[in-house]
Specification:
This protein is mainly alpha-helical and about 425 residues long. The chain is built from 18 helices and no strands. Helix 1 crosses helix 12, helix 2 crosses helix 13 and helix 14 runs antiparallel to helix 15.
Length: about 425
């Protein structure tokens, strides 16, 4: 419910921002946010997956100390990645302003904005809440951030609007959402009596990492950590790097249109993609119980139901796209609506393949998932660059759809290839 509310709220605050600062001003903020988010995602280890994959066993067996060990390890990864991302982002923002396509006048604002990277590393809290099936709390994170932005933009109607003021509002929104999510996770741990002795487990985990004992205590954990980090980094080239590249090649106004088009596409497809948040823990339990047949049937059901609904949504968006875009921006850009439809089509293709990547990670085929993402990125980045250079903003959509189809096709082939081995694992004696 929270995410369903978040989509229209997010579009409302974007619309207000564009009416106050214009597409150019919103484009600048979108570029700063995209760069900060990209830096945060590159250094983020996606440690929520570590909590799910390595924490579900100890939690089920009632081994509190072992579970705390995993959570502490994940938390340390978050802290390290947040600090590194903040420093790297500030350095690039200060010394590489022109390379990012930012005007010199916002160098200081953009550099300060990189502090928000610290509040983008919420993987441990996310993992804890997913493990305990508290998706209602997870859904509130994005909604809290969006509500803060809406309130801030409304305040600018009275106090006056400016790029620095809007950047400060977006930073406070990230910090508030981080505080809410962290508080929810701490509360869930406290209710289940899993915080007792956590500080000792944290110190012990630091010692285990320094001495090199972490990999021995949890075989394969370091490879899993870096594999999920690398895969997520490749996955995020679509959204954030797309905004940055469009901004660098065509200017902040086009970046603003691209950001809005991608937000509309993601918002329209959001009701279908909400189920993804429930996949990982359920898949992990089925894999642990050697219920691989049920695991594959679940994936087929999700792909079919989500894909059919997604196609209906795309058909409706085809007729409503132009009036919706004009209502939100008050401006006319002949390329913006087609880009939105292309991006929505890419979202729907992703919905059809929604279970594939979680399935590869669940069945311990992270390397295969990485190869698929790497090939997708090798296709996407040059095609996006040349399509935007040749066709302007209108070229971004087809490049995204082509790369998405390639990714889903590769993931499907990898899953089909692995299916016989998984069936043999089910038949093997315990």
């Amino acid at each position: 419910m929270g995410r369903a509310v978040n989509a229209p709220l997010s579009l409302a605050q974007i619309s207000l921002t564009i009416h106050l600062l214009g597409s150019y001003g919103f484009g600048l903020i979108a570029m700063m946010y995209a760069f900060a988010r990209m830096v945060g995602d590159v250094v983020d280890f996606q440690s929520w997956q570590v909590v799910l994959h390595y924490g579900v066993g100890p939690l089920t067996r009632g081994e509190r100390r072992s579970f705390q060990h995993i959570v502490a390890f994940s938390l340390l990864l978050d802290l390290m990645s947040g600090l590194v991302g903040c420093m790297v982002g500030m350095g690039i923002a200060w010394f590489g302003t022109s390379l990012l396509g930012w005007p010199p006048g916002i160098r200081l604002v953009g550099t300060i904005y990189m502090v928000s990277v610290l509040f983008m590393t919420t993987a441990t809290a996310t993992g804890v809440l997913r493990l305990f099936d508290r998706y209602d709390r997870l859904a509130m994170q994005g909604t809290v951030a969006t509500i803060c932005r809406v309130i801030g933009v409304l305040a600018m109607l009275v106090l006056g609007s400016s790029i620095p003021r809007l950047a400060a509002i977006w930073m406070m929104a990230e910090a508030t959402a981080w505080a809410f999510l962290s508080g929810f996770a701490i509360r869930e741990l406290r209710v289940r009596n899993l915080l007792k002795g956590f500080s000792f487990s944290l110190r012990l985990t630091v010692a285990d990492i320094v001495r090199g004992h972490m990999g021995r205590l949890h075989p394969g954990i370091w490879r899993f950590v870096f594999a999920t980090n690398f895969t997520s980094t490749l996955a995020l080239t679509f959204g954030h790097l797309g905004t940055l590249m469009v901004g660098c090649l065509l200017g902040p106004a086009s970046a603003g249109y691209y950001r809005l088009a991608s937000q509309i596409a993601a918002g329209v497809a959001k009701p279908v993609t909400l189920i993804q948040t429930t996949l990982y823990p359920e898949m992990a339990r089925m894999w642990r119980d050697k219920a691989t047949g049920r695991l594959y049937r679940l994936c087929i059901q999700i792909a079919l139901s989500g894909g059919v609904v997604g196609c209906v949504i795309l058909a409706v968006a085809f007729f409503l796209g132009h009036p919706l875009f004009r209502l939100l921006t008050g401006e006319a850009n002949p390329q913006a609506v087609p880009v939105m439809l292309w991006l929505l089509a890419a979202e729907i293709v992703t919905v059809w393949g929604l279970p594939l990547e979680p399935l590869l990670f669940t069945t311990r085929r992270a390397g295969a998932a990485i190869k698929a993402r790497a090939l997708e990125t090798l296709l996407f980045l040059p095609s996006l660059f040349f399509m935007v250079r040749w066709y302007g903003l209108g070229g971004a959509g087809p490049a995204t759809l082509l790369a998405t189809i390639t990714l889903i096709g590769l993931q499907l082939l990898l899953v089909l290839e692995a299916r016989p081995h998984d069936a043999a694992r089910d038949a093997a004696p315990c």
